[in-house]
Design brief:
Length: 106
């Protein structure tokens, strides 16, 4: 038998409904773990890492778009070709960025 969504929610209360719930230690500065190590990127690499992240995100969107262009009832091959060209340029840009980072590390 199926239960309604509200019935399922009643069975599993939200953490804020539970007075014994553990508070978020990150939200309360008095309970933060002072021994925790903060990891950070080497000086000067934050922009490059951000750019890599943006390129990968754009490429993933393009790959998803290509999949949709090709798998339509009537495939849009011209749109897929344009997207593939853009993906190729982004991949070349990503390779160049990584090469610049490698050269800077030497």
């Amino acid at each position: 038998m199926l239960t309604s969504a509200s019935g399922r929610l009643d069975q599993h209360p939200a953490p804020t409904d539970n007075p014994d719930a553990v508070s978020d230690t990150y939200a309360d500065p008095d309970h933060c773990d002072t021994d925790r190590v903060n990891l950070s990127l080497p000086r000067g690499l934050t922009n490059e890492v951000h750019e890599i992240n943006l390129l990968i995100g754009a490429m993933l969107i393009g790959m998803h778009a290509n999949y949709r262009w090709i798998n339509r009832h009537s495939p849009e091959l011209e749109a897929a070709k344009r997207t593939t060209t853009r993906l190729t340029k982004q991949a070349v840009e990503l390779q160049a960025l990584i090469a610049r980072m490698e050269n800077a590390a030497e």
